[in-house]
Write a sequence for this structure.
């Protein structure tokens, strides 16, 4: 046993732990050892080779069947329950097969880490690359916007902090601008499609670092990873600053848990300083990259120092200084206009819960099923985590560090509603530790090998995966874009002269990926909030109201775009303004606007130069 | 110096040279994208992290990627805020940092392993 292994077993008290991996029995060798021959001359033992390759069969076969069964789909074909409604059974059965293979290997006395790891890897590929393969265009409107911001930096070599908040936290965009320029790309759009798979693969290493710091039991580590990926429905791993900041956050937590949180052997001064330097540099990058993640980082490191005895006591102070310094000196352009609204939301827990939960439970009945799946999945993970936490506590196992990091993000709920997304982000920040506790509970249940217990574990995991498919990809009817949506936006940039006012009827729309500062971007739901006036009540015609709110009424300089994705979004989750379908009908009949471009999925209207009297 | 560490030295230096060569050549190909992604997001950080001799591949990769992103952001951000945005020069600095750290002699009185 190396000093390293010895220390880690002692520190976590896993030697007699309930979740210990049973050691394989050493078989007595009675036969004479075979004469060693050079491999090329030795006889190939087919039985041995087959036994060695057997664990690969399930994940490899599952990946093959899954890949062969996927076909490009039209977003129009996606139902209100999302991607599941169009995926063939042959694309879903492999998920069950990998889960079954994982559980079978988990129940074996020799549960090899690499075998469990292969199953997790297959799961990650299937869960997080499916949209990249089946959907014709990259999904998520914000991803296109992020491409546009990086494009602005790459083209101008500067920042305009007055445009919006993104330019006040430009870290991610600087790296993307650098990468696109160095790689000779026109923009970062080619990176968008595969970003979720890439980020989830990148999360593997820091998650392993964290989980191996919390336990020596390989089964708990791999089950926790399986649960993390099988329940991360939050979809914050698209091409975005928060996805990158989350990666760095996991690394910082991993460093502090592994080398600075007791019980650990003392680290000599030089490597200790180097590891702390990496943690601080990564923290600084988080602060320069994203608005919310630094506060989750601060809450986490503070919780580790206060409640788990982390010896890196200066880190919370340094992170606080980094955040304060960045807000004070680097975000003046944003803060000067938004400080009041930001501060007024502090402590408004009712408003936060209303915007995060109540406002999301609406729209199409299929969408309500998706919201229910999200709530149920989160509740299930937290419920399993509570069970695991109780088991660990009952068996006097250390839980402080993981508990501290699980609970640390919850105070963020009283800070900000974060555009109705804070609950989602809190669930994401807590997920690695919830998955750890849930895994400890599940593995404790299967400590004694039993077919029933293995089946029960498998059933729980398949249930979570089923909920995940609805929760994660339930909005894909609107999140996914058709070629018509994208071609329509491309036409908009071709038709509209620079400086024009571009107005989306609703959301989402795959725009702003170029000329980010070259146009004025607006949304009718913002310009004309509230539902349209009821029939029978006298009101100014919609098209006149649209013209009234235009910043410029110069003919040929204001464009309204309506796409399939916007109509799908309104149908699925509702709208805070006039439905895009109604806008399209009114503009089609208007004499104030004319159709400048049309395809089956997109229509572009431009203000006429000589409007007729009728709207 | 262990064989693994020597191999990393060769990999890091080769990656830096290849990234620089592809940039100078101006070749438009998926190879250039792959090499640039690999170099910028892994190599500068790995050049430092391997000196810690962490004896844990997952930990090394995690720290290397985080440090590489932070370094790219720091060098690129410094150029941006100082009005000297030049991706080629930024790459040259990252290459210099990587090669310097990769070939730097490791002088430690007592080797250290992670706890």
């Amino acid at each position: 046993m190396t000093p390293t292994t010895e220390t880690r077993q002692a520190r976590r008290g896993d030697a007699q732990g309930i979740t210990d991996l049973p050691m394989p029995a050493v078989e007595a060798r009675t036969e004479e050892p075979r004469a060693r021959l050079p491999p090329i001359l030795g006889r190939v033992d087919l039985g041995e080779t087959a036994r060695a390759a057997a664990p690969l069969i399930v994940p490899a076969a599952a990946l093959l069947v899954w890949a062969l069964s996927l076909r490009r789909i039209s977003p129009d074909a996606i139902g209100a329950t999302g991607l599941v409604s169009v995926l063939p059974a042959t694309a879903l059965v492999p998920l069950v097969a990998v889960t079954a293979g994982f559980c079978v290997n988990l129940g074996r006395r020799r549960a090899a880490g690499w075998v469990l790891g292969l199953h997790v890897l297959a799961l990650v590929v299937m869960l997080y690359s499916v949209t990249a393969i089946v959907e014709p265009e990259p999904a998520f409107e914000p991803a296109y916007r992020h491409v546009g911001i990086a494009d602005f930096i790459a083209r101008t070599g500067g920042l305009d902090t007055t445009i919006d908040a993104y330019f006040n936290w430009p870290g991610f965009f600087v790296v993307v601008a650098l990468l696109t320029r160095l790689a000779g790309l026109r923009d970062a759009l080619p990176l968008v499609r595969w970003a979720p798979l890439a980020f989830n693969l990148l999360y593997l290493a820091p998650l392993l670092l964290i989980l191996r710091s919390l336990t020596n039991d390989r089964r708990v580590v791999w089950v926790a990873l399986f649960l993390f990926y099988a329940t991360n429905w939050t979809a914050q791993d698209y091409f975005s600053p928060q996805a990158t900041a989350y990666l760095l956050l996991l690394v910082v937590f991993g460093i502090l848990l592994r080398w600075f949180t007791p019980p650990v052997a003392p680290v000599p001064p030089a490597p200790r300083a180097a590891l702390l330097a990496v943690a601080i540099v990564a923290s600084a990058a988080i602060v320069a990259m994203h608005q919310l993640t630094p506060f989750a980082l601060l809450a986490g490191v503070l919780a580790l120092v206060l409640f788990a005895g982390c010896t890196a006591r200066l880190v919370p102070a340094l992170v606080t200084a980094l955040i304060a310094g960045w807000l004070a000196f680097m975000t003046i352009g944003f803060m000067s206009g938004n400080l009041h609204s930001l501060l007024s939301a502090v402590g408004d827990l009712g408003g936060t819960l209303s915007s995060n939960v109540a406002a999301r439970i609406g729209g199409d009945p299929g969408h309500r099923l998706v919201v229910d799946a999200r709530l149920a999945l989160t509740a299930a993970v937290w419920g399993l985590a509570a069970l695991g936490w109780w088991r660990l506590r009952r068996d006097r196992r250390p839980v402080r560090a993981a508990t501290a990091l699980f609970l640390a993000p919850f105070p963020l709920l009283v800070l900000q509603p974060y555009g109705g997304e804070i609950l989602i982000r809190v669930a994401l920040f807590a997920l690695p530790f919830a998955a750890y506790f849930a895994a400890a509970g599940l593995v404790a249940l299967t400590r004694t090998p039993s077919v029933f217990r293995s089946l029960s574990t498998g059933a729980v995991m398949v249930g979570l995966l089923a909920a995940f498919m609805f929760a994660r990809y339930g909005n894909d009817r609107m999140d996914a874009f058709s070629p018509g949506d994208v071609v329509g936006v491309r036409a908009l940039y071709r038709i509209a002269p620079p400086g024009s006012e571009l107005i989306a009827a609703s959301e989402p729309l795959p725009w702003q990926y170029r000329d980010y500062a070259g146009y004025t971007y607006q949304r009718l739901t913002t310009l004309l909030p509230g539902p349209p006036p009821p029939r029978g009540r006298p009101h100014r015609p919609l098209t006149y109201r649209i013209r009234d709110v235009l910043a410029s009424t110069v003919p040929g300089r204001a464009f309204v775009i309506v796409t399939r994705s916007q109509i799908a979004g309104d149908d699925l989750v509702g709208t805070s303004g006039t439905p895009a379908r109604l806008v399209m009908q009114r503009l089609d009949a208007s004499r104030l606007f004319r159709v400048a471009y049309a395809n089956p999925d997109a229509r572009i209207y431009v203000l006429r130069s000589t409007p007729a009297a009728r709207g | 110096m262990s064989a693994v560490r020597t191999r990393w030295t060769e990999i890091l230096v080769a990656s830096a040279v290849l990234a620089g060569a592809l940039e100078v050549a101006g070749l438009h190909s998926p190879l250039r994208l792959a090499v640039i992604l690999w170099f910028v997001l892994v190599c500068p950080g790995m050049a430092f992290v391997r000196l810690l001799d962490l004896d844990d591949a997952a930990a090394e990769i995690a720290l290397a990627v985080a440090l590489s992103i932070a370094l790219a952001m720091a060098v690129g951000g410094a150029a941006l805020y100082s009005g000297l945005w030049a991706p080629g020069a930024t790459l040259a600095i990252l290459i210099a940092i990587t090669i310097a750290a990769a070939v730097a002699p490791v002088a430690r009185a007592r080797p250290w392993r992670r706890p």
Q: What stands out?
A: Chain A touches chain B through 57 residues (CB under 8 Å). The CA atoms of residues 65 and 90 of chain A lie 7 Å apart. The longest helix of chain A spans residues 365-394.
